[in-house]
Backbone:
């Protein structure tokens, strides 16, 4: 009986022992498999590292070869430069010889050539003048005869700034641009809103992406045209309603010196008259004389440029009326502003035909004077005051 019980106990024990041995064999096989896989991965990583080392070595060889060739190119460049300089010297000698033989020719022939050249230049100048008269509306025949009265609309107190209406729009909005460097326009519904004691509370603020420089900006047909702060001569065209830049241009020759001696913050003064957009500036090459440029306000392209006889010394501002530049002069300490230089691009008016015109009933100075061709008035900024001047005009002779 005891033997039978022992037998029944040994059978389960042997069965469990055999199962455990089987599991051990399976684990050993799994470990062997994993070991082989790791060995394979290690071999691949080793090969990858070896390939990388080979690539690095090849790249170093390539860099050395490239640097060597660049050094050779520099040597060739020096040789070519020397040959070009030698060729230029020979060309200069040949040109001198040609000039010498040319001067030895019959003087009558030279005189005839020079006369033909002068005739050609006169013909081209007359043709250019005819084109300008067609481009610019010659029917705009009004000239300034006097400044009748002034009205001080408001006094903001800021020394520099400009204010204006848009002569290209039918609305009555007023725009205030305070300071010689700023990027915020204040837009008022009308002049009464602007005059109110707390106008900034009722103003629409328009922030520009780039600040302006000086006080020579202008608003025309819904766009602000201004000299970008920090640039030499970049003019930006900004859509006030959409609040984005639509175009820009570089004004050749401008931006190096102030356009007016008494308003040194303004390097480029933009103006509007019956013909559209103008730029007023000065250049060192003109010995400080003022230059005016007609700009197409749609394409922002330069249409024509004139060197005037009006000097920037003693000038504080200027404006355009019917193709004619009027320059305002004053004293450094301030006084009565006066117009004593006029330049008509079509040569219909000369300074000698207009007596010196004084601004009435006011002692001080202006940093900005803009003409509004729609209302035939001047919008000025003088000693912190916003002023309107009414004008008296007459027909050009």
Residues:
């Amino acid at each position: 009986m005891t033997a039978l019980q022992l037998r029944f106990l040994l059978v389960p024990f042997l069965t469990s022992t055999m199962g455990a041995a089987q599991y051990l064999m399976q684990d050993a096989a799994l470990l062997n498999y994993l070991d082989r896989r790791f060995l394979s991965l290690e071999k691949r990583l080793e090969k990858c590292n070896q390939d990388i080392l080979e690539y690095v070595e090849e790249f170093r060889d390539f860099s050395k070869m490239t640097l060597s060739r660049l050094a050779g190119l520099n040597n060739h460049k020096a040789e070519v430069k020397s040959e070009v300089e030698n060729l230029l010297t020979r060309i200069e000698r040949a040109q001198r010889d040609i000039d010498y033989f040319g001067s030895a020719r019959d003087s009558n022939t030279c005189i005839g050539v020079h006369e033909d050249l002068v005739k050609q230049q006169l013909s081209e100048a007359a043709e250019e003048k005819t084109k300008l008269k067609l481009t610019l509306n010659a029917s705009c025949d009004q000239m300034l005869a006097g400044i009748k009265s002034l009205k001080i609309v408001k006094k903001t107190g800021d020394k520099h700034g400009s204010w204006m209406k848009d002569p290209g729009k039918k609305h009555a909005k007023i725009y205030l641009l305070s300071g010689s460097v700023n990027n915020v326009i204040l837009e008022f519904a009308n002049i009464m809103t602007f005059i109110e004691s707390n106008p900034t509370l009722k103003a629409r603020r328009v922030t520009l992406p780039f600040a302006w420089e000086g006080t020579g900006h202008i608003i025309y047909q819904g766009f602000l045209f201004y000299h970008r702060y920090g640039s030499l001569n970049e003019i930006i065209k900004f859509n006030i309603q959409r609040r984005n830049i639509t175009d820009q241009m570089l004004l050749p020759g401008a931006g190096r010196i102030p356009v007016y001696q008494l308003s040194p913050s303004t390097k480029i003064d933009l103006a509007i008259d019956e013909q559209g957009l103008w730029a007023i500036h000065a250049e060192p090459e003109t010995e400080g004389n003022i230059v005016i440029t007609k700009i197409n306000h749609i394409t922002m392209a330069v249409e024509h440029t004139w060197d005037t006889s009006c000097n920037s010394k003693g000038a504080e501002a200027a404006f355009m009326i019917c193709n004619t530049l009027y320059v305002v002069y004053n004293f450094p300490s301030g006084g009565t502003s006066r117009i004593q230089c006029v330049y008509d691009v079509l040569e219909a008016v000369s300074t000698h035909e207009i007596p010196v015109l004084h601004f009435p009933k006011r002692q001080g100075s202006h940093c900005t004077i803009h003409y509004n061709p729609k209302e035939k008035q001047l919008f000025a900024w003088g000693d912190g005051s916003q002023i309107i001047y009414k004008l008296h005009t007459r027909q050009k002779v």
Q: What stands out?
A: Residues 128 and 134 are 10 Å apart (CA to CA). Confidence is low (pLDDT under 50) at residues 107-111. The two ends are 152 Å apart (CA to CA).
